[in-house]
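Subject: for your reference before the review

Hello V.,

The reviewers asked for a structural picture of the protein, and I figured it would be easier to keep everything in one thread rather than splitting it across files. Below is the amino acid sequence we used in the manuscript, unchanged from the supplementary table.
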Amino acid sequence: MSSHKRNQVIEDFIDMYKLEPCLWRVKSKEYHDREKRDAAYAKLLLKLKELETYATKKSVIRKINSLRSNVRKEKKKRDMSMKSGASADNVYVSKLWYLNLFDFLGDQDIPSASMSNLEEGDGSEIEEEDVDEPATTPSRETSINSEVPSPVVPKPNSDTRAMSAVTIDDLPPELMMKIFESLRPEELLSVQDVSTKWQVFARTSSVWETFVYSPETDEDLIAFVEKCPMLKHIRTKNILDKDKIIPAVIKNCYDIHSFCVEFIPSLEISQLEALFEAFPNIDTLLVRIEKHNAAEIIDRLSRCKKLKKLILSGQRCHDGVLKPIVDGCPSLEYLSFIEGFQNNPKLDIVYVLQNMNDRLSYLRFGLSPITQQIVNLLGTFTKLEEVLLHDSTLNRNVDFRPLANIKTLKCLKFQTFASEFSEMCRFLDVLFDKPFPLLEKLDICFVHCEYDKTVLQKICQCYPNLKYLRLYGKHPADIKDGFKDICKLQRLESLGFSSSKTVTDDDIESLSHCLKLKELDLSANHLLTDKTIGHLAKCKALETLDLSYSSITGDNLHIVAENLKQLKILDVKQCKYLDEKNLLALADKMPLLKIIQDGGICYG
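And here is what came back from the structure prediction:
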């Protein structure tokens, strides 16, 4: 690496250090916050690895000590020369090129024998040692030992002040970071190419703490991690090539926390070991289990003490698969097992419910049928916030009333293949007679039976604070009155109501009162026409709209461009009367809108 490039990396390192006051502002509360300090060291480590491939946290601490030690020595020499009564011409002028880059420390870097910028647990103190990089920038044509005259700086006058232009790079680092934190990940990806300084801000943005990347292809993921090593969360439903993806993620990413990619065939035990070795902080994982590797995979998962969320899928597994995970993962609070477990012996599920009723906040499982013992055990959970139940055939004799004891429930999803609505009544009685006080999300799917017309009315009456509602299945012919009650759900943000043979444009008019609605799924409602788009004009917060399999022509899609300015996704697959010209006109007016059409054709 050239000296110029090396110095540039050092400068970026110092800029990143400046953005982490928890490492140098000794009087602040965050200075004593170990988690913040560890996170800050992790960011600096990523930059230092550009100089030292095998750098560690201790390497970062040594580098900070070395840089600050040199700065203190130079300042001390300058101050001593000024105190000695030397003339202005004889005042010591430092040749240390990064001296002024540490001005942000103020008086916190005054030489003191007892002063340290590191916590005691770091195991090192500030040492008076020299750094191995040159003291001058490579652009200067002077040697280290040569005399460098003090630069002549002209005094600013009114003309020069007027000519000087203030750019965005002149903003304080704190304000710059706020700007970068407001950007979307795809924007952060682009601005990294503007300058090295912007790359530092983009890669240290707190956006990466919550952003989940969902790639479409292997190439997408590989290209993304090469440019965004700070990525922490990966989740996709698309099947990717494990032999390409695992090495790319391990090579480029620094600290993956969530890795939810279902590989078919499943991961080999060596690949799973490599993931845990490279990313010891993984706390969310999706793993496909197959009969040939079930024992090895489960044994490795059972040793993950930090694992908080686990999603299991795969082929039908033998009894006892879940027991080691329950016993070996004390931090587990999210557990999902559906595919491959529906016909699993019930002893496994019973063991989960008996031993995790005070730990789990999320539980998703399938069982055929759900028994009274399972329902009784669910009623003992004290922290459960979300539960998803899949039952192929409901047992008419099961009493669901113990579910009402789950006072912490915020999300309930229930899917049944029962052929008669009467089989659902025991479950719905609990839902309506003793409403869950904190429920915000409700998803009910009647796959084969037509539900009663009063179901939607009772939902709106019992749960006025719902934010998320999905109602799928065979809708009754007289659903009109239920739709009118949806306007009572003033906090509703997401609504799914698809596959109805009776819902009309007039029914959709009721949704115009749901002003907070962001997601709307009206797919496979064949009677809906262009009038529906007009009724939705008041839902200005809409971001996702699914009108696939409807009868729209698109003649009034201009209403979307004029009123739904927040819309990001419009799905119009299989709309057989849709005019292509109307879609093109909409795409011109809303270039950022993603329009999904037949055959995966997209605009935007």
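For the response letter, the relevant points are probably these. The chain has a mean pLDDT of 81. Residues 1-115+128-137 form one domain.

Happy to draft the paragraph if you're swamped.

O.
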